[in-house]
Amino acid sequence: MTHMHRARSVLCATILALAVCGCSTPRNTIVIGSKNFPEQAILGELLAQQIEAKTSLHVERRFYLSGTYICHQALLAGRIDMYVEYTGTALTAILKEQPDKDPLAVFNRVRDEYARRFHLIVEPPLGFNDSFAIVIRGDDARRESIHTISQSVRFALSWRPAFGYEFIERPDGYDGLRKTYGLKFSGEPRIMDLNLLYRALLSHQVDVIAGNTTDGQLLTNDFTVLEDDKHYFPPYQAVTIVRERTLSKYPTVIAALASLQGRVSDRDMQLMNYEVVAQHKDMAVVVREFLHSAEFDSEKTQ
Asked: How far is CA 285 from CA 41, 65, 271, 290, 291, in A?
């Protein structure tokens, strides 16, 4: 082989090596994912900032990956190391089991089965429960004196519903809700992006939506969340799910995640959602302010 050919071979090998390295995750890096709506990205940023603050690891953010199934598969494939899930979602959508009303029983079942089936660690809850919320306009609720889902049944025949894709497809979603309450609407529900549901409700394009109890939009406009008086929805405690291999490889992550357990209330989450979605504040700034807030600091000393 001539000197020039050898040099070209070395150059090609170097370029190939760089290309391969560029496609892989750098060493000492944690990859955090999220589903495709603002609360999930906020929670991903919360994990990221806490790991950056408490360890020497680098964090790669892969937010807005899509829904539950995509995030779960990304975990199993090793494309991400962790993301925040909700216990009721994990129980019904991933484990394919029937809803349960007991928060502790649901958490224990999800924790045990995720470890057994998937080698994934389900960390203790972050502190808040984000249930589905059946939402109507406040003026409609007051005019007809509607406070519960049961009371809405006799009005639903004239309502135009809109739901997110997951709510339509999941076993703890629309079909079960319809059967539990005997709901019948004026037509088939429109399937809409989660970020558009409240706008459609405000503009009278639809009359009822399925949001979430921690949505920031509930603080900004005149909406009414109908009480789930038959307790159809299971508990949806927010929990961090982590690959077993990740915690074995980077044990310092364990303490970083533990510092968040039980520290985010329903109100905390709703306010962060409000600041990001309604006030258009930078998500990283909102999370940083929360982690340095008097409320968060006071909880550390309790």
From this structure: 13, 22, 13, 9, 10
